[in-house]
Amino acid sequence: MKILTMVSHSKNNSSDQILCPILKGLNSAQSDCAIIIPAGNANRLLLTALANKKNTANCQVAILCNDPFIDRDSFFLELYSLGVRIISNWPSSIFLEQSFKKAMSNIGIHPESEFEYLAQATSAGLRPQAFIRSLEQGKQAIKKGIKDIIIHPGLNQSLTQKAHDAVLDSLQLMIEAFLNIDPALSIYIYQHSQKDLNAYRERYPEKTSPISGYVIYGSVE
After folding, report:
1. Long-range interactions of 140-143: CB distance < 8 A, separation 24+
2. Measured by CB atoms within 10 angstroms of the end CB, which terminus of the chain is less buried, N or C?
3. Please, what sign has the CA dihedral across residues 76, 218, 131, 180?
């Protein structure tokens, strides 16, 4: 079972880390805010971090899709030239709701446009890995040809045990639905902490779980 770690910076090259510089200085709860409203130029910070890394071979990164200030094709080629091979959508619009969601959709910023953006990266040799929040979003990503799905369980908040178990059960139903659509999918569950990861493992032992692994929020000092 693979475990990927979201990091703001990395001193060593690891294919098990997803580099996301806008997470610098944030805890796991604050990182959810960064996925909705990033502080700073996410893609420019990423390119700077990659340029300063000594070894970026087979690197995984998180990008802001549909960045209006960067040419898409040039961006993909630059990422590939810097050693990136897998990209994910973080920051993302997957959490937007109601009037904010409608307003952003009116200017072309919505989950489906992100998945299309990620899917187009395959032409540059990059593998897309989509963060999704719902069954509908997952189906949209799969329809775009994305084979790696990361299910985000929702904002990091205090829940009763019953409510927490209900969240885990809903994730499991979502996983089963996705695999019924495409059994070849690689599905990961995002976890805010090691404690959350352990709770999921306890309820759904890895021997019987159909997922490929986990993505966990972390930091590298």
Report:
1. 140/111, 140/112, 140/115, 141/111, 141/115, 142/178, 142/181, 142/182, 142/185, 143/115
2. C
3. positive
Half-sphere exposure of 77 (CA within 13 A, CB side): 5
Q: For residue 7, with 0-12 CB atoms within 10 Å meaning exposed, 13-18 middle and 19 or more buried, which class applies?
A: buried
Q: Where do the structural domains in the chain lie, given as residue ranges?
A: 2-217
CATH 3.20.20.70, domain 2-217, yes or no: yes
What is d(CA 219, CA 111) in angstroms, rounded to the nearest whole number? 26
Question: Using an 8 Å Cβ cutoff, are 46 and 63 in contact?
Answer: yes
47-88 pLDDT, tens digit each:
999 988 776 677 899 999 988 889 999 999 999 999 999 999
Mean pLDDT of 169-178: 94
